[in-house]
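Weekly modeling sync, notes
Attendees: S.R. (lead), two postdocs, one rotation student

Agenda item 3: backlog of single-chain predictions. S.R. asked that every request posted to the team notebook include the full sequence so nobody has to chase files. The rotation student volunteered to paste the first one in as an example of the format we agreed on. Action items at the bottom.

Example entry:
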Amino acid sequence: MISESIITIKGLTKDFPVGSGYFRALNEVNLEFGRGEFAGLIGPSGSGKTTLLNIIGSLDTPTKGEVIVLGKDISHLNSQESASLRKEKLGFIFQSYNLLPVYTVYENVEFPLLLLNLPETERKKMVMEALEWVGLTQKVKSRPSMLSGGECQRVAIARAMVKKPIIVLADEPTANLDAENSHHILRTMATLNQELNTTFIFATHDEKVISYLKRRITLADGSLVSA
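Predicted structure, as returned to the notebook:
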């Protein structure tokens, strides 16, 4: 039984046009997530994991069905409302880091806070706290090109977590990392999940990630196999 449901998915279907027909990426998916979960969408490439993550994150919309995230129906949000939801309530971690190469570590982590129009003193406190979480306070002036892959991903985690979002969506966050860095990243996220009660949802087929999950949701060919 899920307490304090923050994501409700009912009959979610997603079709992508292909030639004169379509490809069904998700087929009648029903799911629910509660506050503070550490859950993963598991399945091979093409199973619908990333599509589902993108719809939860309001980066895409359903073809059919209902997706309610923090009380907002994703299908009925305009572009400005979707952007506001992502800006204020959601954090994203990608396998390719997506750091801004000309910005320092500090500036990359600060960027989401600039969008929230917070005072400089408050921003500085929040950025340094986020960098402390991931053990990178000594790298504030470094640029991404000066960092290892593991350090870049830790910066990406700090950027996702700096505003203390309610939900963090992580798409194959360890794909480009070796085993040691992967475990470091996963331990960091598990700790933040515990301390901040942030809901983490992963899309992954990495056994290292799967071993940390408290809930495993299996997808195959766009359909829910187990939740």
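Discussion: group reviewed the output briefly. Residues 172 and 209 are 9 Å apart (CA to CA).
Action items: rotation student to repeat for the remaining queue; S.R. to check formatting next week.
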